[in-house]
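Input sequence (211 aa), recorded before submission:
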Amino acid sequence: MDPKSTALVMIEFQNDFTSEGGTLHGAVAEVMSATGTLPNAKQALDASRAAGVTIVHSPISFQPGYYEISQHPYGILKGVVDSNSFVKGTWGCEIVEDVAPTGEDIVLEGKRGLDAFGSTNLDFILRNLGIRTIVLAGFLTNCCVESTMRSAYERGYEVYTLTDAVGATSLEEHANAIKFDYPMFSKPITVAEYAASLAGEKESADASRGY
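Predicted structure, token format:
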């Protein structure tokens, strides 16, 4: 895994999901606690920054009133509307402080649906930066993360998914997606495995420079 051609894509690490008091936190709290989603994501982020990996944050947001989507939403987006989640300008829509963007991090604009490629310029950004490998973390395990994974796979990227830095609304859904769906469209790995691969790459690069 070459850090120069790798991007870590952090999907919807926003207070409404990640934080006590968030509108949807109760739905994902059990899985977050069981897997250590947020601390693991921070570890992945820190390791990525240290190695020079491109960092992309992919939050979802809507105007008050949700005018960007159907007046009669169904499925997961109906849940977002009914819970009044991810509204621009609110605390719940902000990226949680633990993994907040810094420095040269890229923050996508325009995500209104599930796939991070769907309504954003993510593909344009990645190709312009020479990114060939995408590493995914975030919410939900079996929804936005999986949708983005499938799309990245179809576009020809090498896709890794961090199995202990994603979260779902139940342990059953989380485990099912990782066991049956993730291997079809990505290379599932843990954060520890990811960090170790980056550290090994850095040691190799340092050795080649005579450090």
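Checked by second reader. Residues 198 and 204 are 10 Å apart (CA to CA).
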